[in-house]
Design a protein that fits this description.
By secondary structure, the protein is an alpha+beta fold. The protein contains twelve helices and eleven strands. The protein has helices at 11-21, 41-45, 48-66, 73-82, 93-105, 127-130, 134-141, 143-153, 217-229, 236-239, 249-252, 310-332, and strands at 84-87, 110-115, 118-124, 160-167, 190-195, 206-208, 259-260, 267-272, 277-279, 287-295, 340-342.
């Protein structure tokens, strides 16, 4: 007899695994679908998801408070109020020119991921790659860069830094999930783009709903209802913990219209991607190039870490190791990883 939609698979096995999943409540684990504790309907009716939201937000504020000296008050207030920050002409002109030439012209082994009709092409700027890229190494040591991103992330280091290019419209007819307004996780997570191209409606501007990172009462009620009603069916991304806005949600949450960050090259955009955001629509065949960063640390750690540069190297080595593990796991299953290796000469039409 067929099980009804949304019924748990292998409930006895999941019950036996509960002791292994319980500690993940104090990590950034977010999947309602894959984690039987986080996705437990009874626990979420009792407020588990909302409790994690509130606790993570309070701890993030504490971490930022400890690092308030790293950013001037005007930028701090804008980031706290709007959820994103735009800094035009961020790098000195000569430094930007060296960085752009290096990122645009140097051919390096990379990773690509196909989502919908877009391809994302990334080169990890770990110690191995930085040895070949002196301008990128200079950027990562640049004090305004480190301080601005450090405060935004609530930590002394930003672990993931990549040369990042989006190719739009390379697989016509497929829906790109990044074009839908969504929140990355239940806790504050930081992403940043130092754009090396001009960005507008031609090549997909980063788009953000101002103030949507804040936990208003309506946002908490909305999150509570979504956590209780999550079945793992239908909306794969929401069930994985990256909640999408549906019809009528913006009106219920009293959200303002989204703002498209149409910016000139050498503009730094930093955003708390717990707020609702997406990539704007673009023209097929267009692309945009940036230095891209992500900080997604344990949201329940109240300490901002230690200001030692050698720890950056360890963080980035962990990224490289995780990618190698994904390669191994995919090969064992006879498939390809989500982020697969490409040779230096790779092109989107290859």
């Amino acid at each position: 007899m067929k099980k009804p939609a949304g019924s748990p698979k292998r409930p006895l096995r999941q019950l036996l695994l509960w002791p292994l999943y319980l500690p993940t409540l104090l990590t950034g684990a977010k999947s309602f679908k894959k984690n039987p504790v986080i996705g437990n309907r009874l626990l979420n009716r009792l407020g588990l998801h909302v409790l994690r939201l509130l606790l993570a937000a309070a701890i993030f504020k504490l971490r930022r408070w400890q690092l308030a000296w790293m950013l001037d008050s005007t930028d701090r207030q804008q980031l706290q109020r709007q959820g994103f920050l735009v800094k035009e002409s961020f790098l000195p002109a000569d430094m930007f020119q060296r960085l752009e030439e290096e990122a645009r012209n140097r051919q390096l082994e990379a990773r690509i991921c196909l989502q919908g009709d877009a391809i994302t092409h990334r080169v990890l700027l770990d110690h191995v790659t930085q040895a070949q890229l002196p301008a990128c190494r200079e950027l990562l040591a640049y004090r305004p860069w480190r301080r601005m991103l450090g405060y935004a992330a609530g930590r002394y280091r930003v672990p993931g830094v990549w040369i990042h290019r989006i190719y739009n419209g390379v697989n016509p007819g497929k829906l790109d999930p990044q074009l839908t307004l969504h929140s990355d996780s239940f806790h504050p997570t930081i992403k940043a783009w130092l754009f090396l191209d001009d960005v507008d409606e031609r090549n997909g501007p980063f788009t953000y709903v101002p103030g949507s990172h804040r936990l208003s009462l309506r946002r908490l009620v909305w999150e509570y209802r979504r956590s209780v009603g999550m079945t793992g069916e239908g909306d794969h991304y929401s069930a994985s913990g990256s909640l999408r806005l549906g019809p009528g949600d913006s009106e219920y949450l009293n959200l303002p219209p989204p703002v498209a960050c149409k910016v000139a090259r050498n503009t730094l955009v930093i955003a708390d991607t717990h707020g609702f955001h997406c990539r704007g629509a673009s023209q097929p065949g267009s692309s945009r190039l940036a230095i891209w960063c992500i900080s997604r640390t344990n949201p329940f750690n109240p300490l901002p870490g230690l200001p030692f540069r050698f720890l950056d190297r360890i963080d980035l080595a962990i990224f490289r190791g995780h990618l190698a593990w994904q390669d191994w796991r995919a090969a064992r299953r006879g498939g390809k990883p989500s982020w697969r290796k490409t040779p230096p000469e790779w092109r989107p039409d290859s």
